[in-house]
Design goal:
Elements lengths: L27 E6 L2 E5 L7 H12 L4 E7 L4 E6 L5 H30 L21 H26 L2 H24 L13 H6 L3 H34 L3 H5 L5 H50 L3 H5 L3 H43 L4 H5 L1 H39 L1 H6 L3 H54 L4 H4 L5 H9 L2 H23 L21 E9 L5 E10 L4 E6 L5 H9 L6 E6 L2 E2 L5 H7 E4 L10 H6 L7 H10 L3 H5 L18 H15 L3 E5 L7 H14 L4 E5 L11 E5 L5 E5 L1 H7 L2 H9 L7
Parallel strand pairs: 7-12, 7-13, 10-11, 11-12
Antiparallel strand pairs: 1-2, 2-4, 3-4, 5-6, 5-8, 8-9, 13-14
């Protein structure tokens, strides 16, 4: 799809001013819907700085609420106010891309100008002198020595400054805060669904009533982390005791021999290891239970809310989208709580222990442990963003490859008939090669991330060993204090490596929360206890439509002043062309929809004032496409009348003309029907749905094309049974096949907008020789007179 938008005509400008690039050939619209546009922009591929620049330019626009430019896939996503015209947004996208390209070209031109000034030939053909003249050898050597001396002095002063633990900790904290703040800003610039509510204390909303479980899981995580760090502190101390032949500090505590000291340290390490395992197990179980409780709570409440939605609002939403919210989005919230929130607690506890331990035991070398923290934080965010882009591009190519192979397998006969095996083999080989090459880049990036982060952790270990060892040799640091410091920084930095992933999962969780909250914001139907009670035994079944008007959103009116009357105990037929409003009348009677004008009355009472459960128990409704659950035939017929006996079940099936084919099945009424009744034919599904309505024994029955999929012989049998069943009850039959309504007490013929064009009995309508008579002759196979 292409969305062409004319760019503003540029006015003549001086030749020194660069002309705006023509970006119309660079951008191609993939999808344009209210509030969201996706574009292909290949020029940004491999240019992350240009991608960030265009994102900033787009988000400066008040009408655009979010933008994302992917330098790997060459895609551009814009989220905007749905009230703004799509063409206006498209124009702003073109302008922002043009401005971004102009700035990128100007920046590149300035760089090349600075790089090419020195040594450029002058007017006389000789190289022009550089800004700095060529000094003599003596001056050069003196300047070099002075520079080296200055750098050495600066380095010495810097190390002395860093030796101050307050300064080192402050610098590391400030640098880490800058990195996190920048990542946080990028996170908040991520596109959000149009109209999403403001996020206020999202974690508190997600946890909900499970705060006590959260506190218990957090407490266990903290204890498990203390035990883990104690174990990592004791193991190096054992090695130092062995190397030095004992510890004077431990000797002062009554452990004189080296063997006693080793036994005590090994016992303490064993206890710490056991405590770490036991507490870690309890913490993992507690977090998982908390995640499951959060997921179960949200799913139960959300599904209950969806069940109470008005049918009109539910029909406007995609079933796949609601299912995705109930499964994937709520599952994402539970997964974040059970896994990633646990990691946050572990990370915070590690640094809460690491900082005071270093400040108390070895403040002079604390900077060695603190220095890698900003770098590891930055690398974690950077590598994770790159990994997301790489995996996104890899997933897209994998989907293309898998889709092509699946399509080829389905079109196996077509391919062989066209002798196109070599052609398809080449296409699959090309897609597989592209997928492999992209995965090579992704694998290199993943390997580099692991090794760079390992290098950062090892640098802290090497620095601690070097400076701490010197301090031990000089006597300024005791061996007992030095031992716990060896492994602790690496352990903490390893957890810090997960910060980018945790942040990404937090963003996904908030997005999931937005979608869940959107469902909760949809209005519910009137409460079950609202409206007048309507006992079924008191219903006579008289139905009236008084000048009813109704229109579906964004469509012409389905009913315009429609009026008709159904006497109590009568059988009426409603026929008409497609779109005449026949099914709409059934929905109005059931309370699924409500008229914008006029009234729908049952026994003289407007159905909007009646209790909805009572109204729907009073009316049995069989639609043209009945839904069967993945259960047995008996369970489907009993649905809604769960306490019916087997005899009542069989009697209802006989009335609906379903007993004979059910009885012929190997398992009879215990036969599973499959998903949506896939194991049955369309006519069999209709008869089971009809039997379900008959079993309920309601005073009013609406059959909306309920016999459209059965043969003529079965229809005749059902008609005979319905005449007996319809005695003393109101029966409304909506049909295209006129033989279905032939025996009705009155037939209404609807035209455009639900207008009643004809009414009467079958014989009266034939005698009138109008629309109904023409349809009857056509369906009966007779020639229509010119």
């Amino acid at each position: 799809m292409s969305l062409l938008v004319p760019l503003p005509t540029a006015t003549p400008i001086a030749t020194a001013t660069p002309r705006p690039p023509d970006v119309r050939g660079m951008l191609r619209a993939r999808s344009v819907i209210p509030g969201r546009q996706r574009w292909d922009f290949p020029e940004v591929t491999g240019r992350p700085s240009l991608a960030r620049l265009i994102e900033d330019l787009l988000t400066e626009d008040d009408a655009i609420t979010g933008a994302r430019v992917n330098p790997v896939t060459g895609r551009l996503l814009v989220v905007h106010d749905p009230r703004t015209a799509a063409r206006h947004i498209a124009l702003r996208v073109h302008v922002a891309v043009a401005r971004g390209l102009m700035r990128a070209e100007a920046h590149a031109a300035r760089g090349s100008s600075r790089a090419g000034t020195a040594g450029r030939p002058g007017p006389d053909g000789r190289a022009a002198p550089t800004r700095r003249s060529v000094p003599s050898t003596a001056v050069t050597k003196g300047a070099a020595l002075a520079t080296v001396a200055g750098l050495a002095a600066f380095a010495t002063a810097g190390l002395k400054l860093l030796a101050n633990p307050v300064v080192s900790l402050g610098l590391a904290t400030a640098a880490t805060a800058i990195v996190v703040r920048r990542a946080w800003r990028q996170f908040h610039r991520a596109p959000r669904p149009a109209g999403a509510p403001a996020r206020e204390r999202p974690l508190r909303r997600i946890i909900g009533k499970h705060k006590r479980q959260l506190r218990a899981a957090t407490f266990l995580s903290v204890l498990a982390q203390f035990a883990e760090m104690a174990m990592y502190a004791l193991v190096p101390s054992i090695i130092l005791v062995l190397a030095r032949g004992g510890s004077s500090t431990l000797a002062q505590w009554g452990l004189a021999s080296t063997a006693a000291q080793l036994s005590a340290l090994a016992g303490a390490a064993g206890l710490a290891c056991a405590a770490m395992a036991a507490l870690g197990y309890q913490a993992d179980v507690s977090w998982r239970r908390l995640g499951q409780a959060v997921e179960d709570d949200w799913r139960t409440r959300t599904y209950d809310h969806v069940q109470r939605l008005a049918p009109a609002d539910l029909e406007n939403e995609r079933t796949s989208r609601i299912t995705s919210v109930l499964t994937e989005d709520i599952g994402q919230m539970g997964s974040f709580v059970s896994t990633h929130l646990h990691e946050v607690v572990q990370l915070a506890t590690s640094f809460a222990v690491l900082v005071p331990v270093y400040l108390l035991l070895a403040p002079k070398i604390a900077w060695v442990a603190f220095a890698p923290v900003p770098l590891v934080t930055w690398l974690s965010f950077r590598f994770h963003r790159r990994a997301i882009a790489d995996h996104g591009a890899s997933g897209e190519r994998r989907a293309r490859l898998n889709g092509r192979m699946a399509e080829n397998l389905q079109a196996h006969t077509t391919i062989k008939a066209a002798c196109a095996e070599d052609h398809e083999r080449g296409r699959v080989a090309e897609l597989s090669r592209d997928y492999r090459e992209l995965n090579r880049c992704t694998d290199r990036s993943a390997a580099a991330r692991t090794q760079v982060l390992r290098l950062s952790a090892c640098s802290a270990l090497v620095g601690t060993l070097l400076l701490g060892g010197k301090a031990v040799l000089s006597g300024t640091l005791s061996g007992v204090a030095f031992g716990p410091l060896i492994e602790m920084p690496g352990n903490a930095l390893a957890k810090l490596n997960r910060l980018g992933s945790v942040t990404d999962q937090y963003q996904r969780t908030l997005t999931a929360l937005d979608r869940v909250q959107y469902l909760h914001d949809l209005p519910q139907e009137r409460a079950a206890d609202g409206g007048r009670p309507l006992p079924a035994q008191q219903v006579k079944g008289k139905i009236e439509l008084r000048k009813v008007a109704f229109a579906y959103p964004g469509r012409p009116p389905a009913l315009r002043g429609t009026s008709l009357t159904v006497g109590a105990g009568q059988t009426i037929g409603i026929v008409g062309t497609t779109g005449a409003g026949k099914t709409t009348i059934a929905k109005l009677l059931m309370g699924f929809r409500h008229p914008s004008q006029g009234g729908v009355l049952l026994d003289g009472t407007d159905v909007r004032t009646l209790a909805l459960p009572d109204l729907r128990r009073t009316i049995g409704y069989v639609s043209q496409e009945p839904f069967l659950f993945d259960a047995t035939i008996a369970e489907n017929i009993r649905y809604g009348t769960f306490d019916a006996t087997d005899e009542q079940l069989a009697a209802a099936a006989r009335t609906a003309g379903a007993h004979d084919f059910i009885d012929a099945l190997p398992h009879g009424y215990d036969t599973p029907v499959g998903e949506r009744g896939a194991a049955l034919s369309g006519g069999q599904r209709q008869r089971i749905a009809l039997a379900r309505a008959v079993l309920r024994d309601p005073p009013v029955v609406i059959l909306d094309e309920a016999t459209s999929a059965v043969d003529n012989e079965t229809e005749a049998a059902i008609q005979d049974a319905l005449q007996k069943f319809g005695a003393n009850r109101t029966l409304i039959i909506i049909a295209h096949r006129l033989s279905t309504v032939r025996g009705s007490d009155r037939i209404y013929v609807l035209g455009t907008g639900g207008r009643v064009t004809e009414q009467g009995t079958h014989g009266e309508l034939l005698a009138r020789d109008g629309t109904y008579a023409g349809l009857w002759r056509l369906q009966a196979g007779r020639l229509v007179s010119a």
